[in-house]
Structures are given as structure tokens and as C-alpha cells.
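Newbie here. two chains, one complex. Structure please?
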Amino acid sequence: MARLNEANVVYAREIIGRYPKARSATIPLLHLAQQQDGYVTDEAMKHIGELVGATSAEILGTATFYEMFKFGPVGKYLVNICTTLSCALLGAEELMHHAEQHLGIKAGSTTPDGLFTLEHAECQAACTEAPCLQVNYRHRNRVTPSDLERLLDELQDGRLDGEIPAHGTVARVRQHIPSDRAVGVFAPDDVTTAPVWMPAQTEVPK
Amino acid sequence: MIGTTYPPAAGFVAGDRPQIVTSRFQYADAHTLHRYLATDGYKGLQAALAKSPVDVHADVKSATVLGRGGAGFPAGVKWGLTPQAVWPRYLVVNGDESEPGTYKDRLLMELDPHQLIEGSLIACYAAGLSQCFLYIRGEMAVAQERVATALNEAYAAGYVGKNILGSNFSVDIVLHWGAGAYVVGEETALIESLEGNRGMPRLKPPYFPAAIGLYGKPTIVNNVETLANLPWLLREGVAAYTAIGTETSPGTRMVAVSGHVKRPGVYEIINGTTTFRDLLYGEEFCGGIRNDNQLKAFVPGGGSAPWFLPDQLDLPFEAKLVGAAGSMLGSGAVMVMDETTDIVAAAYSLVRFYAHESCGKCTPCREGGTWLERIMKRLVDGHGTTRDLDQLFEIGQMICPGEFPHAASDRLGIEAKPFPFRMTTICFVGPSAYTAVDSALTLFRDEFEAKITQRTLIPVSAGASE
């Protein structure tokens, strides 16, 4: 539970280097901290503040605005069941009720073995595939109560490890801009002229 | 590539219709550079680079490429709002799709990320935008992976970065990702989020970040689907684009139809001419209401849009006509409710969403949304009173003073009140919290009264679909 480790600091600096202002890297770095520790720790927020030039209070202010950041341990699998209209019309509340029964917990809590956290979620952009849910932000479509039981079993047995990483990791692929291809960044106020491909005086087309 | 497996991205339904943005969805490897190049990939960019930026901008303007994010503002006009001789200018791609009912941008990012990259490059070239930030919703893990992979491929192959395709056009595309907040889909909130702040919309004016945006500089914010149109437009030409659809709504648009239809799905439809009846009942589309039930109501343009009744089925997907009829096309999301739907509970589902997603900046939204949610919950639970119904309207007046847009109804003998509304909040989250309440209460007041007088409890639907 700590500051970002050495490898993550290297990656954090790479991310920061893509933005004209370091502060823009705040959310990606909070994700990185959550990936490292499973949730966002106070020490990590202080460290991120040092890296992007903000106070830890400012980082906390940003972090607490966003649903995905957790400030204490959650289950290895975060099961988010969508209950917005399209899903509600096709049985999302019933699915949630079933999940609560099956896991023996209420939405918003974690199973005693630390494996599953169950949450009510809002629209997940899979509305035609209702009712839908996400496990660690990976979709499952048209989920019936028996599908849900099977899914939880498969997660428990580790059969979906190749597809669904533990909570904290969202994308497993990272962007890397090769240095020989990068345009690079400039402080916004240092740029006063049009980019080279633009005519100096552009007219807006009629 | 890492050893990962993906379940197929379900939802898209192909048909014998023009395909501008979904033409590669048929290929299992549509997301790879290999497939993209084999299917006319990056030819739109080449066509653009062969012209002057002003000419490319003129193409986009004369093709009337309408914004697909919600407001329907023409992209070419938006690009022209940047002040003269103020540099640098930025592009922010809005991939924060989270409007209830909306499912299209995620498909475009997961299945054809290079098309989005190419569209973004064309926009940067035409409008002189020197850096692009591609903002993907935090909860879309697969879209983030697919776009990251595609960007890595595109950089290596010389399509992004310094001196693109050997020209003097150079731009970096930076993948950025959010962390879960609906309001960040609003363009000034998106910029705040991209600056590392809480995602709260900025005070207006300026009305467009094209004037003052990211880091205080001119910034174009375009929706994913809007940009995905550009490679085809530049490759095939303005005439081919405007030959599809109508003069005011050319081209196609992606529409997600969800809820009580036989075949829910994402359809690329012809803009301007396809009607809601075609879409809900047409054999090539949704094929009718489930179990051949009666249609009760539908939301025509995402959770923020006032509801329509069967009376409005023959309207086409044309912004002016839908606006005059009392709603909006919004983000291309149709949610269908059949006769078994508990209207009060359905409206509650939406008001809960907006109350939850209020950023808290504007009092009418923060307080009003919360009270709307509480009162609606009380009604759904069978504890409401007649006074509650007046209270809902009164709270609505605090958020949207004056008459609120609604559909016409033969049954009720009421005329349409056209879009839009007046509002006391900076962004549309506040009015959206009230929209479903107003629509439900205006069009189905009898169901609210039944909740109060009969005190029965019914779930949202009669059960999951077969």
C-alpha cells in the first residue's frame, strides 16, 4: 500500500510526457495506482500530486468525483449490474435480486472471501443486449439468472483468468508512442503560430 | 498481441442498406490494421492530404455532417468557430458514451478503431488541430485495448505522428481514459476531466470550447461517430454522401433500439427518411413489439429525450420534424416500452440515473434531481399522495421554467409542445432529470393517480422477454 513502484513511476512519466500540462495525467495515474494496489491509497495520491504538480487534496478532489476509483479494498471481481431503463425493462432488478441471493450479500458490499463485490451500475452502453452487466468493466450480454450463476462459478474457478484480469486493471494494452514518430508536446502558451501544414491566414469555408 | 480472448461485440444488425461507418463490422478482424488497409483504410486520409486543409473543411461543411453525439450540430460549422490566428488548437474525441439507451460509439471503437483514428486525423488536418486527445469512457476496457492497439499499429506504420505519409502534416493522438461520470460527456466537463479536474461543466458563455477550451485554447470536441464518417466522406466524395438521406440530414446514422422489441439491435439507418415505424416494426429492423404486444411509448433519442407515443411513429429521423413534435433525436437511442410497462417505475429508472449523475454544480439540478428521485420512489413504492404530482411539476419549473416540450396525443386531445426548453442549469443533466418525469406525468397521469389511489405494486415490466 504505497507510492507507485519503480516500474509504475517509469510508466507514469511516460504518460505525463504526452500532455502539454502534467496535471492532465491525473486520471490515468489514479488508474495506475488502483492497478498496483487494488484501490487508490492516500500515499499514492500524495505521490501522484508530486508527479503532476498538485496537492494531495487536489488529487483526492479529482479522484472522489469518479465512480471507478475505490478508496478501500474491493473484491477481486467487481460485478456491476446495469439497472438503467433498457435493462430495467428486461429484468435487471430481478437479476440483481438473484445475484444478491446467490452471493448472500447486498448490492454495494463484498463477499467475505473477498472474491466478489456487487454494485448497482448505470447505463453501460450495451442497451440492445439487456439485461447486461460488467465484471471488472468487461461486458456480459443478455444475462439470465442461470447465466449469472455460471459466470460466478467460472470466475471462482479461475476459468476466465485469460479474459478478465483482477480488479484494478482496466485495459491490458497500453499505448506507446515511439520516440522517433512522436511530434512531442509544447506548453500551450509557447505556440503562437499556425501548424506548418496550415496556411497562415485561413478562411472559413462558406 | 497479448494472449487475450474477447467475447464477440454483440448488437449490430446488418441489412441491405448503405453502410458508411459499419462496413467492416462483418469481419472478425475488422479492428486490425491489416484488415483496415485491405478495405480502403486510410484512403480518406490520403485524399484529404491531396487537398488543402480549407478544401477538406469545405467538403465537411458542404456535406452537412451532423454531430452524432446529441446536439446534432454540423461538424463543419463547429470547426469554423475557432477564432482566427489563435494557436494551438486541439481536438478532443468524445468517446464517453453513457447516455441511457445509447450503444454505437463503443461498437465503433471496439470493431473499427482505425476508422476513428483516420477520421480524427482528417479533422486535425482540416482545422489545424495540432494535438488530438482520444477520450474513452473509463468503463470500456475492450474499447481502450482495441484503440491502444490500433494507435500502436498506426504509429509504427506512419499514419500517426511526425510527417504523416511523408507530408508536412504531423499530429500526435493521445489515448486518454475516464473513470466513470456521465456528465463528462458534456464537452466542457470532458475538457475539465482531461485537465485532471472534477468533471464539472464550465460556465457559459463561451458556448463552444472552439473559442476557449482545453488549457484555455481553441478546442474542437467531436463525437466518435461523427469523426468515423469522415474517411468515407473524403474517399467517396461529398456528392456520394449527400446522395444518401435528405438535404438537412444527409448520410446515415447508427441507432440502438432497446427494450420491448422482437429484435433489439444497433442499426445503421438512412438519415432523414427512415421512420420510427420502419425501425420498430420493419422486418429488416426490429420486426415489431415482443409477443405482438401493443406499443405504449418510446424514447426517441436517449434518456434525455421527451417520450413519444404511437401517435409519433410515422416521424422520420429528421431533427427539425422531431423537434417540432416535442422531442429530439439526441444520441440515436430508441427505448421501447410495451403495454405491460409500469410507466411510473420506468420514469423512476431514468430520474434515478440523472439524480445520481448530477455533478452538483448547479443547485436546481443537484437539489431538484434529488427531490424528483425521492418523490418518484415514493410513488413507485405506493406511498405517494396527490400533492406529490403537483410537487413534481413545481420542481420541474425550477429546472426548466415555462412549458416543457411534449408529444401530441389523440387519446388525451393535446397538441405537441415543440423542443427545446428554457433551463436554469449550465448543462442538460438537470433538465434531463425532469424529462422522463414530465413525459410520464403529462402523457400517463392516470397511472400516477392509480399508484396513489390503488396502492398496488407492479414491477417495471411483466417479466424478461422470451
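Moderator note: Residues 363-380 of chain B form the longest helix (18 residues). Residues 192 and 198 of chain B are 7 Å apart (CA to CA). Thread marked as resolved.
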